[in-house]
């Protein structure tokens, strides 16, 4: 079996980087295309994975470690009020984890961002700037 990225995830996000979770599992990190939020989506490249427990143990542990480290870094850098970490998968069953910085002044506060309102796509300039800022902040 080979890994294929769900078309909805591909359409709604931009590839930031790919990380190794284990010898056998990589993880795409993608920026959600909504100018109102700093929102990353982590998608392990593991065929037919729908649930966290379907990943090998080493990949599960590495994923949660990265989510914690990156979340702490992002929350501090952007001075966010809250960090949301979630794996829903009701509409897109391919296993993925959302890391969303939340601010008391964001449009969905205090409720969830999911289903609140349509995304507001980034302009080319905003996307390029945000991608560069995240790469400098998070990648060696």
UniProtKB/TrEMBL annotation:
Residues 40-109 form the HIT domain. InterPro entries: HIT-like, HIT-like_sf, HIT_Hint. Keywords: Methyltransferase, Transferase. It holds the Pfam family HIT. Its EC number is 2.1.1.-. It comes from the Bacteria. SUPFAM superfamilies: HIT-like. GO terms for biological process: methylation. It comes from Larsenimonas suaedae. This is HIT family protein. GO terms for molecular function: methyltransferase activity. The keyword Methyltransferase applies. The keyword Methyltransferase applies.
């Amino acid at each position: 079996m080979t890994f294929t990225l769900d078309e909805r995830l591909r359409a709604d996000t931009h590839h930031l980087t790919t990380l190794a979770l284990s010898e056998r599992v990589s993880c795409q990190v993608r920026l959600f295309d909504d100018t109102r939020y700093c929102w990353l989506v982590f998608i392990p490249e593991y065929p037919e994975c729908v649930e966290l427990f379907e990943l090998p143990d080493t990949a599960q542990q590495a994923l949660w470690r990265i989510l914690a480290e990156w979340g702490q870094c992002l929350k501090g850098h952007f001075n966010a009020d809250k960090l949301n970490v979630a794996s829903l998968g009701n509409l897109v069953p391919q296993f993925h984890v959302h890391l969303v910085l939340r601010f008391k002044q964001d449009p969905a506060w205090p409720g969830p961002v999911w289903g609140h309102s349509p995304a507001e796509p980034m302009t080319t300039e905003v996307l390029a700037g945000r991608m560069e800022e995240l790469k400098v902040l998070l990648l060696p």
